[in-house]
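User: quick one, fold this
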Amino acid sequence: MAIRYHIDTLLNCVFIQHLDDLVHGEFKKHVQQILDDSKFQLGMNFLHDASNISFVENPTTKSIGAKRDRLKKFDDPEIGTCRIAWVVATAIDYGIMHRISVTNRFNPEVERRPFRDSEKARTWLEIPEDYEINYGN
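Assistant:
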């Protein structure tokens, strides 16, 4: 699993482009790389562009619940109060992200939402229409 990312401190957003299939256990190391970046600030929003990949696994409700508990205890406090948008290509991937978002809805600090349309995700995150994402790394 590989990503490229760009942090825009003025827009308060981390832009992540997923370059190959998303494997559940490998994602944390990429998040840690972003958290360790000197530009990252607590409370930044995230825009995941997963529109050119697919999710390798379709997690069970039980595993999503376990992930929710882990996010609430460990991961979410590291990112702060924010919004996380996922732009996906398929209905199956949208369903997976929707299930993850719904199970996390009682966490008022981090709001997650899947999208099939990148413009709607950008609007939700208040990213200007004419903003061009430059993945420099």
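User: anything notable?
Assistant: The first strand starts at residue 3 and ends at 8.
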